[in-house]
Write a structure and sequence with these properties.
- With about 350 residues, the chain is α/β, with parallel strands linked by helices.
- The protein has 14 helices and nine strands.
- The strands form two sheets. A six-stranded parallel β-sheet has the order 2-3-4-5-6-7. It has a three-stranded parallel β-sheet with strand order 8-1-9, with helices on one face.
- Helix 2 crosses helix 9, helix 3 crosses helix 10 and helix 4 runs parallel beside helix 5.
- The longest helix has 16 residues.
- The radius of gyration is 19 Å and the shape is globular.
- Bound molecules: S-adenosyl-L-homocysteine.
- The site of S-adenosyl-L-homocysteine has 19 residues, from loops.
Length: about 350
Amino acid sequence: MTDMIRKLRENRDLSDEELREIISSARFDDELISSADMIRREIYSDEVYLRGLIEFTNYCRRNCFYCGLRAENKAVNRYRLSKEEILSCCEEGYRLSYRTFVLQGGEDPYYTDDRMTEIIKSIKERFPDCALTLSIGEKSRESYQRFFDAGADRYLLRHETAKDEHYRRLHPESMSSQARKECLFALKEIGYQVGSGFMVGSPFQTTEDLIADLRFLQELHPDMIGIGPFISHHQTPFRDFSSGTAALTVRMIALLRHLFPYALIPSTTALGTIDPMGREKGLKAGANVVMPNLSPVSVRKQYEIYDDKICTGEESAQCKGCLERRINIAGYRIVTSRGDAKTAEK
Ligand code: SAH
């Protein structure tokens, strides 16, 4: 083992200079990835947790430059799921043995706090043994508190990029990195299990930006960390930028597993989109979560945050079967529990 990887394993931390060396070359990849897999196996064994993803609205009031669902994209067929439709997705998910549901959507004003609270309560009433995760963007602290009181357990909000200058190049002026970070700290204080993360290879991103992302995560210390390659969407201002790579994403996953040994790290759909074996590569580099799609097939294609998103044509049951096979072949095993993060104390 090289000194670099030994140091990373022992201290679980490195200087910026050392991080720069690892991030900017493929030289350490083999060792980094096998070491990440060893760490994940020590803590999580060969277990992979499932999250049933319900994309319940593609309306969004925001205009993030990278996202296909941005308000100014008039070419999107917009849809919203009713409470009953959401509950029937959960029903199907429960039957397929999912014990975590993730409600994800654009920032859609139709889902007022009252409507959201109602949906959360109904899901938790009907499926008390399941964890409920929200991923609906930036809200006030009061709203986050109401959702938590209604029964939401977890919240996913990627910081997207930690450096202010870079954040401003990816978003309109009405958005700021500071506001995003304040939301994350508020969610943590309220008591949510919090997930954050960033895109890899987004336009203008430098190695320094990636180091800043890791440093920010060390400050936040989230329970879950989701990363995926940026993938260009043809109806956004970033249509002409090239997408991020699987190689750098996988390297960053392996690095994250070293810096956050206990974190829940998904092997994302974006990684599977950029590389047909991307999700397997992510799992072998330390990821321990996959998030199969539970949205009704009739709307799946309309939740196109980036081009050519995979798994939009299959029924949920097929999706689960396909993923289960892929996970087994990669050398891991699906477990059907809520899949909360383990901690050093337990
Ligand atoms: N509105 C919610 C959910 C956003 S979609 C929120 O703001 O949190 C979930 C994630 O998809 C985003 O956080 C972003 O990191 C990622 N994403 C958006 N557009 C993308 C693109 N073009 N390529 C790759 N990932 C993208």
